[in-house]
Amino acid sequence: MPDTGKTGSGMGPQGAQPSGPVQRYRFKVRTPDGRELTSTIAAVRLPPHLEAPQWNLSEIGPGEKATMSVAAPGRDGETVHFLIERRGPKGWEAIGHTSGEVNEGRVQVEYEMPHIPPDQGPADEARVEYHIAKATPSEAEHGGKKPGGAP
Asked: Which pLDDT value is given to residue 76?
């Protein structure tokens, strides 16, 4: 099982610790007679986290353009994908997507809000949020905010 702790060996030249977040791995080998050996630890650098997802407006109407942004330190030149979702009577449903390139540690995109029929739930239950992902869904980070940054 991977270890994300700070201790271990096999960290690189002369045991140097890698900078930033890492995932640590090792392996074990076992012979039929029960002898076992454990490898040194290999540290795999993880990409920096995405931070502070924000909307530019506290309220956004159908057809209006919304600006979404997220801090992405150490990821300049990478493409970040935004998935826009709406909470309806049956849960969250995708209503659109867009992407942008990280520049100076930040990515900002505009998205025109679609004209969506009202849901069947109470008006205060209507929310739109976005999810941010780099490359794969397993790296997705949840925007989880109402427009304007309210929880």
From this structure: 92
